[in-house]
Amino acid sequence: MRSYRGYLLMTENATPVVKDNMREPIRASEINPKFKYELIKQHGSEKLLKCFQCGTCTSDCPVARYSDSYRPRTILHMAKLGLKDRVLKSDTLWLCAACFTCTDRCPQDVEVASVIRVLRNLAAEEGIFPQVFRDQCESVLESGYAYKIPDLRIKKRESLGLPPLPKGNPESIKKSLKGVKFMKHMENKGDSNAKQ
Amino acid sequence: MPSSKYLIFLGCAVPYRVSAYEISARKVLTKLGVELVEMPEFNCCGLPLDPVSHETMLILAARNIALAEQEGLNIITLCPGCAGTLKKVNRILKEDKALREQINGHLKESGLEFKGTITVKHIAQVLTEDVGIDNIKKAVVKPLTMLKVAEHVGCHLLRPKEYIGFDDPEDPKILRNLIEATGATCLDYIDETECCGAPSVGVSDKIALQLARDKLSHVKLVDAQALITICAFCHIMFDTNELRIEKLFNEVYGIPILHYPQLLGLALGIAPEELAFNELRVNASKLLQQISEGAK
Q: Fewest C-beta in 10 Å: which of A123, B125, B180, B289?
């Protein structure tokens, strides 16, 4: 398994930040009461307000079992309360493995994993995201593939009796992605604004 | 045997890390009468970028579907992540006209259009629905009755249920039925449907390896001779990382991790050398020996 540069920026190495972020007392000035209405307009988080905090998502979450800080129920509660900054800057947001167990088991049909994805997207738009996604996005823009497939591997295909890999067509991909908000973070290469 | 024809969508992880999956899948599908056509052009399915930009994911997935539509063929994928993403986007864009127009606005820049004329299937679904379990059983020449294995279905083949819409993610039968068609016994174990941990790699390797370790220890508990996967990422998690997990947790597993098409290939009488067993990190030679002794 590759060790990503993002690994150093996120999660276990940043645990104290996560703990402080989640456990600090809530100040009324932090609350943005309209945040939830912003969220229910987005694809995937339409049913957020139906969440009645039963905790099925957290109790069935495989990541929560091994993380001190990742609790999907808490994230949804914070989002509903309107703790926008706190939730978007939280490292724990990035721990979801997108296994969709929470989504399939939610008794209220809230797409929990998709709500978390919507929150991640909002954080990413503000430039807060782990390095691993920058690497993969760069790779897609350069080759069409999310991983930089070494030339040796591509050549080896022939000796293994496999047909050549299809062309990635990065120029055409870049054209299609024009106007996508997130892409502004990919324009300044080397200027690492991931997880400030 | 019924014939079917598909564009093969490899995705990124398969050509990047797990050629054994591709080699064995191509051999098995061809043998069972599924015709594979190469994608003329391709890009990442979009799933890896969904966490940072849903719109990017939609555009990348729609591009692939639009490219396949130009060929007039349905897609078969080896990776459940690709299958899940392309299926979900295919459905959303067929149903949501406003979103389809928005995404087509992006695709227009490169002369493409999503029309909604094809379907997407994962290899497990093609084997079950197109070839059929009965036909697989009929094609088996070397039944693997001496083998007791465990299955790992993974998440994205079946979840979220709302969008995937086949089998039951809480009590899946698809891979179990495919394994049993080879003559092998499929054992039950604790938390069979749990995540392998792969999506957490890069964000928290610690959690990812804990999850994979849990699965391996549960599989060992029932004395499975091998663990059967049907996903590139799950395979990397267990096979590529097994030695690392053994060191980290000071435990010994020694469980070979096979791609399902490798297991099926053996039952169809294809030689192990042709099924890329040598590409596996966890040595499967003892297992192959047990099979050849058992067959005598």
A: B289
Q: What tens digit of pLDDT does each residue of A124-167 get?
A: 999 999 999 999 999 999 999 999 888 888 889 999 999 999 98
In this prediction, residue A153 carries a pLDDT of 87
Query: Is the entire prediction scored with pTM above 0.90?
Result: yes
Coil, strand or helix: which one is B227?
strand
Write the ipTM. 0.93
* One-letter-per-residue 3-state SS of A37-64: HHHCCCCCCCCHHHCCCCCHHHHCCHHH
User: To the nearest whole angstrom, how far is the Cα of B16 from the nearest Cα of chain A?
Assistant: 5
Q: Which residue does chain B place closest to A4, by CA atoms? A: B202
H or E element that contains B204: none
Number of domains, chain A: 2
| One domain for residues A115 and A36 | yes
B3 CB neighbour count, 10 Å cutoff: 10
Q: Return the C-alpha torsion angle A82, A86, A92, A95, nearest 10.
A: 60
* Chain B residue numbers touching A154 (CB-CB < 8 A): 15
Residues A69, A113: one domain? yes
Contacts of B201 in chain A (CB under 8 A): 1, 4
The amino acid occupying position A144 is G
My answer on whether omega of the bond before B160 falls inside 30° of 0, hence cis, is yes
Domain span at A102: 6-125
Residues of chain A neighbouring B55 (CB-CB closer than 8 A): 180-182
Cα dist from B185 to B72, B147, B226, B293, whole Å = 39, 6, 11, 17
* Range name among A1-5, B216-220, B263-267 with the lowest pLDDT average: A1-5
Neighbours of B287 (CB within 10 A): 21
